[in-house]
């Protein structure tokens, strides 16, 4: 399976072999906290820094700490999956604004922004538009945009709150 993914990613055979040698991929926690000493490995510091670290800390705090707990309690996970900001719309399929969907799109938008910047791709107007739409829909989008993506993607300033 790893060989097929490496082929689709355009990796050379030698690069694909290097991936196969990695036996301990970093966990989300080690990206933001480092690892201390785990399984006889030398300690290392967090793998991220700056605003990227702040974004991952916020995402880790929310996605892992909160949503992971729901995943371990399936009844609550199902309840979370159908949560809607406008309960009166439950009788109208399609009118439900799902927080799960908006947060999944937000996570996707953050990943695409990181890829765009890391490979030096020209700015994507579609990605900017997605962020603008998410800023209208999801409060967590404002947190992540203020931490990193507003400056990185030249997103519009947040409206002044009175």
Task: Write structural notes for this entry.
This protein is mainly alpha-helical. The protein folds into two domains: about 45 residues, no CATH class; about 120 residues, no CATH class. The chain is built from eight helices and no strands. Helix 4 packs across helix 5, helix 4 packs antiparallel against helix 8 and helix 6 runs antiparallel to helix 7. The longest helix has 22 residues. The chain is globular and about 50 Å long.
Concise structural overview:
The protein has 162 residues and is mainly α.
Give the beta-strand count: 0
Largest sheet: none
Distance between the termini: 53 Å
Contiguous helical run count: 8
What is the ordering of alpha helices and beta strands? HHHHHHHH
What is the strand content? under 5%
Mean pLDDT reading: 75
Low-pLDDT residue spans: none
Helix content range: 55-70%
Whole-number total of structural domains:
2
Q: Top keywords for this entry?
A:
single chain, 2 domains, 162 residues, mainly alpha
Please write out the topology.
Blueprint: H1 2-8, H2 13-20, H3 28-33, H4 50-71, H5 74-81, H6 99-118, H7 125-137, H8 139-152
Helix pairs in contact: 1-2, 4-5, 4-8, 6-7, 6-8, 7-8
């Amino acid at each position: 399976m790893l060989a097929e993914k490496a082929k689709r990613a355009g990796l050379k055979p030698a690069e694909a072999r290097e991936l196969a040698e990695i036996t301990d991929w970093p966990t989300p926690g080690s990206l933001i906290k480092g690892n201390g000493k785990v399984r006889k490995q030398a300690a290392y510091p967090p793998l991220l820094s700056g605003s990227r670290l702040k974004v991952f800390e916020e995402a880790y705090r929310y996605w892992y700490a909160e949503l992971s707990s729901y995943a371990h309690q399936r009844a609550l996970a199902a309840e979370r999956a159908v949560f809607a900001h406008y309960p009166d719309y439950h009788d109208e399929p399609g009118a439900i604004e799902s927080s799960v969907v908006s947060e999944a799109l937000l996570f996707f938008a953050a990943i695409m922004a990181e890829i765009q910047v890391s490979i030096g791709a020209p700015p994507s107007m579609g990605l900017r538009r997605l962020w603008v739409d998410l800023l209208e829909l999801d409060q967590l989008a404002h947190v992540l945009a203020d931490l990193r993506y507003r400056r990185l993607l030249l997103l519009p300033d947040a409206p002044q709150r009175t």
